Amino acid sequence: MRLPFISTTSHASHPLLEKIIMLAPDRTCISKFFGPEYFLPVEVQLQQNGYDLFECMITGLPVHHQARGDYLEAHFRPLLDATLDMVMALQHVSACTSGTEYVQTYIAVQNLIGAQKAAMAMYCSTHNYEKKSVE
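Structure (tokenized):
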């Protein structure tokens, strides 16, 4: 039997990210599949990983906000699309799966949330962007 997707309310601002979060398995879903003893890093750490990764991808942030937004979107969009593909692929996973796809998708979504937070922090920052954490 395939596990249900448990949707949660999100504070993310990218509209497609909101939909991804609603469709993706969450930590409760992973725990039901593998049991409570299965180790998963906490969401804050997974999001921090995504935040840090996105920061590493960005160099030469434009000063003008329109150009900055376009630049950040161009770097964020491939991550968004890849995660959406993972979420949509779960619809075709058989009930006999090992669950690896669920865990990978959960981690990708948490990383994407962190990347989105980094993108927003960079967009809203002054030209001299200083690296920060997700919290």
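The chain has one domain: 15-124. The CA atoms of residues 76 and 116 lie 7 Å apart.
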